Amino acid sequence: MVVKYILSFLLILLILIVNISKTVNCLVIRSVKPIENKTWENWNGAIHISPDAIFEPSTLEDLIDIVKLAKINNKTIRHAAQGHAENSLSVTEHYLVIVTNLNKMTVQKHPKYGWTVTAEAGISLSKLDKTLRNHDPPLTLDSETLYDTFRVSGVIATGSHGAKTSSGIMSDQLCSMKIVTSSGEICEFSEEINKLEFSAAKVNLGLLGTIYSLTFRAQPMYNLRMTDIYVPANKWLNNPQNIKNLLESSDGITIAYWPFNGFNQSDPNPLDPNRDRIAIKNWVRTDEPVSFTQQQLEQSHETQKQGVIQQYELITSHLQNPETTPNVTATIWNSVISNGNTSSVFQAPDAIHYVASEESAKFDFVEISFKVDPDFSNVASEFSHVIKTLYEFAKKGKFPLNYIADFRVIKSTEALLSPAFNNDPNALYCQMDFVSVTGTPNLEEFIQVIAQRLFEKYTAKPHWGKRWEFIPNVKSYLSNVLSDQIKQFEKVRAKYDP
Predict the structure, then answer these.
(1) Is 3's pLDDT higher than 50?
(2) 8 A C-beta contact, residue 253 and residue 409
(3) Contact between residue 398 and residue 368 where contact means Cβ atoms under 8 Å apart
(4) Over 50: is that where the pLDDT of 411 sits?
(5) Distance in angstroms (rounded) separating the CA atoms of residues 140 and 350
(6) Of 4, 270, 419, 439, which one is least surrounded by beta carbons within 10 A?
(7) What is the SS3 assignment for the chain?
(8) Residue 339 banded pLDDT, cuts 50, 70, 90
């Protein structure tokens, strides 16, 4: 009889435990509801995936519950923001978490930094800029990316660079960041707490939990004079001191080249690289008043977007006839330089985001980073080599670049997985960028030639958010050249995402 009562008690206890467990699981996953759409593609349509579930959290609690659900169901998580990554960073068969609904932000006084701004993972740079600009007093970040449509977590996770040399990558503007780890715990990373862990978190490629929020140093709004000049490519690049002098007298520089821009159909030698010119852009901090009102800037951006659409349509209409590329790119170049050299003053964010993003124009982006020689000779020679290689391809009837090639120079960073990582704070890195309309024939072949040369000569590294996985043997190469940083990163990762 006693045994019977004991067994009855154990049965009741077991039922209670099961029900309590069910209740706990319901509490854990109460806010986890995947969206109905089961497919996702990146911004230029090159990547299509159909994961098990897609989530769009709008609160920290949502994010925590998604992580816990993934752990319960033995699923992995990848993340997406605006979807500008052009590789497998967001590709998964399990759970895709889109963070764009995490869009709250606050500006606060800080005892050490003066002002800081905390932005949830899905905040766009345009919203961040607007909030800081409208603050009393007006504020700004000192480093951002060219386009203002990007979301802060995507920029930070990939170590995307900033436009200003002295300010480095945007990740280096961080004071701290909060991440939901694999256990569903909220962990804060900062230099004050643990420098090594912060160096790993600042560029984490989505491999160190899920970014929830980022706190940046902000500073009083200031103005930049942005100047554009157009000079003969060969003559200017033949003297590396030109680049060094310009950089030393500027806050930042960009050197841009439109392929075959000297093309002249009526000339006996229509393809002559000696006629090609480059566009030189630089920024200098100034106390001068801005040259345009915000309304004028908005109108200018609309005009610029229409120009990008027209350029894109012109290129795509000739994509199946590559031999027409020089005529097309020369036409675009002539429209770019039609107003001649210019110099105007802008508020810092307007100068940094000098190109209005037009999402309907689909491009492939590739970017490769290498350390700058003290005399800048390798920057000049490698950009000259890019132009030379384009003409060598043209002799074979191949025209792989139909929009732009450019380079910027930024200072190094201690963020472990950044392409610009270096323990020397005075080291500089050249970010060489290539842009062609999506689907351009022979682009991958051309990039492979350029990349292999830069890998062999400078142990160069690709920009993580852009295209690079098609380069032969690139993963084994990167595993080797980044081995020390990877080992340090994995020690941190083992602690938070075992």
Answers:
(1) no
(2) yes
(3) no
(4) yes
(5) 10
(6) 4
(7) CHHHHHHHHHHHHHHHHHHHHHHHHHHHCCCCCCCCCCCEECCCCCCEECCCEEECCCCHHHHHHHHHHHHHCCCCEEEECCCCCCCHHHCCCCEEEECCCCCCEEEEEECCCEEEEEEECCCEHHHHHHHHHCCCCCEECCCCCCCCCCEHHHHHHCCCCCCCHHHCCHHHHEEEEEEECCCCCEEEEECCCCHHHHHHHCCCCCCCCEEEEEEEEEEECCEEEEEEEEEEHHHHHCCCHHHHHHHHCCCEEEEEECCCCCCCCCCCCCCCHHHCEEEEEEEEEECCCCCCCHHHHHHHHHHHHHHHHHHHHHHHHCCCCHHHHHHHHHHHHHHHCCCCCEEEEEEHHHHHCCCCCCCCCCEEEEEEEEECCCCCHHHHHHHHHHHHHHHHHHHCCCCCCCCEEEEEEEECECCCCCCCECCCCCCEEEEEEEEEECCCCCHHHHHHHHHHHHHHHHCCEECCCCCCCCCCCHHHHHHHHCHHHHHHHHHHHHHHCC
(8) confident
pLDDT in tens, 369-386: 999 999 999 999 999 999
Task: Grade residue 18 by pLDDT with cuts at 50, 70 and 90.
Answer: very low
Residues in the chain: 498
Query: What residues contact residue 197 under an 8 Å CB cut-off, 6+ apart?
Result: 189, 492, 495
* Pair of tokens at residue 493: 């990762």
User: What is the model's pTM?
Assistant: 0.92
pLDDT tens for each residue of 252-291: 999 999 999 999 999 999 999 999 999 999 999 999 999 9
CB atoms within 10 A of CB 40: 19
d(C-alpha 12, C-alpha 76), whole Å: 36
Contact 117, 94 (CB under 8 A): no
Residue showing tokens 């005892």? 111
Contact present, 242 and 231 (Cβ < 8 Å): no
Q: Judge if the upstream peptide bond of residue 137 is cis by omega within 30 degrees of 0.
A: yes
* Euclidean distance between CA atoms 275 and 133, whole angstroms: 43
- Please say if the pLDDT value at position 124 is more than 50: yes
**Residue 361 C-alpha from the chain's centroid:** 17
Is 274:263 a contact under the CB 8 Å cutoff?
A: no
Q: Which amino acid is located at 398 in the chain?
A: K
The rounded distance, in Å, linking the Cα atoms of 222 and 139 is: 8
At position 226, the amino acid (one-letter code) is M
Comparison of pLDDT for 82 and 398, the residue scoring more: 398
Are 111 and 223 contacting, i.e. CB atoms less than 8 angstroms apart? no
**Count of alpha carbons within 13 angstroms of residue 389, beta-carbon side:** 20
Q: Which amino acid is at 138?
A: P
